[in-house]
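Fill in residues.
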């Protein structure tokens, strides 16, 4: 297990964290699991492994698992602060940064809403991952291209 937590292998880290999560559940019946840091509080880990750059480990109650998400994105809109890169990118005027973050949120949406098919950027708002879509550049709008499986900017 220590070997799997060394290095920068996000998927290996995730596997170990979810195995420890199962141990945590078995040893803490009746207590709600709220975050990966609960594994440290329970003495199952001394510290969390380092996630890949721009990512973080987060607990998804809906999927009942620890997941690897873009930094600052909280599952089902649990919030984030104005200093995190996701909020800065979506709140800024850089359309390419906005597209990148929207497409990362599509991946999060798919992990947390697997039973539904993604159909438009508004799904991110409906799922609570965003309070609203960012303002696109003048004359353009955000649209989902199912062939490319990506959010794009298209003329209004």
């Amino acid at each position: 297990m220590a070997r799997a937590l060394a290095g920068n292998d996000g998927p290996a880290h995730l596997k170990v964290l979810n195995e420890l999560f199962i141990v945590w559940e078995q040893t803490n019946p009746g207590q709600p699991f709220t975050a990966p840091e609960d594994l440290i509080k329970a003495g199952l880990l001394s510290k969390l492994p380092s996630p890949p750059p721009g990512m973080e480990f987060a607990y998804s109650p809906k999927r009942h698992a620890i997941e690897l998400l873009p930094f600052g994105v909280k599952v089902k809109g649990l919030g984030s602060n104005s200093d995190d890169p996701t909020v800065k990118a979506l709140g800024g005027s850089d359309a390419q940064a906005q597209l990148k973050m929207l497409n990362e949120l599509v991946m999060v949406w798919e992990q947390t809403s697997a039973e539904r098919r993604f159909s438009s950027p508004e799904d991110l708002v409906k799922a609570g991952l965003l309070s609203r879509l960012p303002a696109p550049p003048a004359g353009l709008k955000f649209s989902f291209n199912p062939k490319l499986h990506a959010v794009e900017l298209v003329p209004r």
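The chain has a mean pLDDT of 79.
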